[in-house]
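User: I've been going back and forth on whether these two constructs are worth ordering. Before I decide, could you fold them both?

Assistant: Sure. I'll take them in the order you sent them. The first construct and its structure tokens:
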Amino acid sequence: MYASREDIGYDFGDDSKVGSKPIKPNPNIDGGWAWMIVLSSFLVHILIMGSQMALGILNMEWLEEFNQSRGLTAWVSSLSMGITLIVGPFIGLFISMCGCRMTAIIGGILNALGWILSAYASNVHYLFLTFGVTAGIGSGMVYLPAVVMVGQYFQKRRALAQGLSTTGTGFGAFLMTALLKYLCTEFGWRNAMFIQGAISLNLCVCGALMRPLSPRALREKYVVRSDSEENRAKALSHSTETIKSNGVLSEEPEKKEEAANEEVLGSVQHIEIGGKSGSRRSMYGLGILKTVSQLTVTVRKGFALWYSSYFGAASLFTNRVFVAFIIWALFAYSSFVIPFIHLPEIVKQYNLSGQDNVFPLTSIIAIVHIFGKVILGIISDLPCISTWNVFLMANFTLVTCILTLPLMQTYVGLAVVCALIGFSSGYFSLMPVVTEDLVGTKHLANAYGIIICANGISALFGPPFAGWIYDITQKYDFSFYIAGLLYMVGIIFLLIQPCIQKKQPKEKSTEEAQV
């Protein structure tokens, strides 16, 4: 079974060569400020993903207020969840140009603006624009940097760090469900959204905590990784052939571009020195020219990295296992989102509202989800355990629960299945780790952006599809069955591709031996 990207034969050139002199590890990697990054990411997950998991409360309010079909009303929540994830690849471009900190701060302002404007909605279509699009884009601009920064700051305890940070989703779903219920009861849903918008401004503080690692620290991290994986790489006789066939991102254009950029900035500085004898006005103009030149260089370099990752010779899409991962993501996330959006309505149909008000089923998923992420993260960090195998087992458990949920019509039965859904969905904390193993830290932002984009498409169409099926059949059963079967198709893709990928190098080596 799959263990790391070297086993598959993919290397995107992010690991530096180990020099003869030992390099002292950076104290902020796996410690120090790294834990502040975990705290920042934890709060981001509470405020963004937790709030989205509690949208079932607002969905019922919108159904009563606007008197629209369940399918149409569900689009509001789906747009917010879907766009948060779909914009991932484009947010990767922002990160390449502006960095994680600036991207997250801008996203926090945009998210809060979306919540506040939604308080004045006159119809569902107004919410599509304000809550679905505006708040969704803002959420995406904060969410991706929060995940990427944890991956940059941790090497040895990546799964545990990602697990701790993403437990914010479970805490947030539990807290935000209770908060939105209280606010809607006491102040009405419009004032509740206004207050939530004010709370969302704390995302800007989370973004400010995302202090970037120095380039030297990143190089040190790559050296540590190449040291720890050197023995495995030597054992793979076919790795060199595979790398050549797939193509490694060329460093020559980057070096040439850096040299050209230095020439531009150097010429500006030379002119600035010569202009000291001139007027203050001309120096001010040269200062503006220098700033514009530096900004242009940053934008060009960021766009070049983003473009090469998607469309270059060594594009991420040449990695077949990564492509299978994308196909899985297209089907997986809707199976997790549908229960959160429609469970309050299902409980109402089964006349279980009294028991659900005491302890909501969505809160059960949220609480157990916290433990699932931490426990799965700890298990995956054990040296004798494969992260990939843990990831697959959790997926099998989740798809079984989705297919079983319609058969449960008592509160106890639903509670047990919801608890299993919460625990098994803890694999979300392993997604960044699996992605980083496939493509490397250098391409994590763009690669994970693609994965969450696929998840976003799944979240975008899942709940409206479930609502549409209900409008036809007056039951949610078929929605869960279809979502579960599509999810199973995605898991099969994950199982098939690594096996095919391992066979190909063996076949090539056999042919070469015969020649």
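The second construct, handled the same way:
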Amino acid sequence: MALLLGTGWLLLALSVFSNPVLLTACSHQEFTCSQGLCVALDSVCDFTDDCADGSDEENSHFLSLSPVGGKNITADLRSPVFLPSHSCQKTGSARHLPALPYGSPVLKGVYRGERTSECDFEDSSCGWYELTPGDGFDWIRGSSENVPPDYYDHPPLPDHTTNNTKGHFMFILKNSSSLYQNAVLRGPWFRQSASGCTMTFWHYNSGISVGAADVYLRFKGVQNKTVIWTTLYNQGRRWNQVTVQLGRITQPFQISLAKISLGVFDGVSAFDDVSFKNCSMPLAVTVCPKYTHFHCVHTKACVERLQLCDLVDDCGDGSDEEGCSPEIQCDFEDGLCNWKQETSGEDVFDWTLIRGPTPTLNTGPWKDHTLGNSSGHYLYIESSLPQGFQDTAVLLSPVFQPTYQPGKEGVWSYQHHCAFRFHYCMFGSHVFSLAVYQRTTATGHGLLLWAKYGNQGNLWHRNTLHLHSAQPFQILIEGTVGDDFEGDIAIDDLSFLDCQLFDGELPSLTTPTLTPPAPTVIPHSCPEGQFVCGAHGECVFLSQVCDFKHDCSDGSDETNC
């Protein structure tokens, strides 16, 4: 990921690579333009020509991610460290750079760690900056002694990092009575983020008229912003931890924390200890495990085979999503694809296609899973009226071929793997349940494969189900309404791997010509008189059963002895 640099980084880079004579003309808090003009350090590499000659945007200084002791490559990497550079190159709206060894003293006080990148604001602002400084309502970096004492009627606020009044944090400073002022704290630019990316920070919002705050994503060249967190009014005299899911974002983005003043602002709003976890892309390697992983074509990273054709670019070059079958994938960007709403009376209402947040506050996702922004679509069940408690909505997949086929003398042979992947969000205090069924007839629910109950947090979760059937089958996704309006449930990015579509419909009644094995029993071809192992259907002699030795790989020949 490419990040805009904080003050500490720029100061070091300028002292090394800029003309030392020109530096004396500007203060240590300013950048010297080519024509001698001084601009604030936070104005460098912000995609704005503040110098009027472009010099603050030409040889900009960014942060990159690189493995410890590794080489800088085009792809973002796992186990990252943040590194300074001599200059950055513009490639569209993304920028990349050479790397320096981890452990350089310039890393102190900026972003720390490897898998987790953190900023505590003790030594610098780490690239976070106020969008419109000097308007009388600004985010500034400081300590408790910088907070006006009339902002609160309790002892000075300690920062979260050190828990004392000497520590630093970002806070709102208001010295104007103008109405509708907007303080926006913008973070560094990120090139992209991996699917497991989360952002955690500590927020303080206390006072009788402290107002609300929003955190939103801003994309280069996109007008609309995507809100990913909000807080309303007084949250008490304490630091509150917040974790938001960024997920897989494939374009440059920036995070902003916005605060609006309506002329009356009485309280303290502060921001500290921001960290990003699991946000870098997988590391390039020479060889991947042959049967369980896929070797990405360009980035040379390894991704699990179950991540292929799942509508998520896990490689960073899209190669894990090439050659897929679109008829067994659905991201809901163009409707329901091959999925259908239940129409035979098995449910009460339908799933709803939506983009952005659901209408009810404190329930449902803020954004879709596919695009990671407010423009992406997903399906959800609305738990408000007219829906009632335990009303259900059912979604039907296309019909698939059996994964087992009959062989000679009625013995069933295993044909192929078949996996179903899906993402779900169950956020809200009144969430009831989400369930997945597999059926072999045109009516009824069939076999329950998976179910989840209750609030699972404001996150998109991924799940994989391995499917087995001796008959053509279909998947049902059923959402059930809770006992109040904060119970919205959402699904997105449904995909099948190694499943073959069936050219036909399911029968109305169960009329099998052959008796398949029970759902919990794997078909086998052991001769009569031999013991069938439980997990994999291996064959062992009856004399080897209960002989104190595990002849079956799962040890089932030594159970129930």
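Notes on the second construct follow. The longest strand covers residues 198-209. The chain has three helices and 35 strands.
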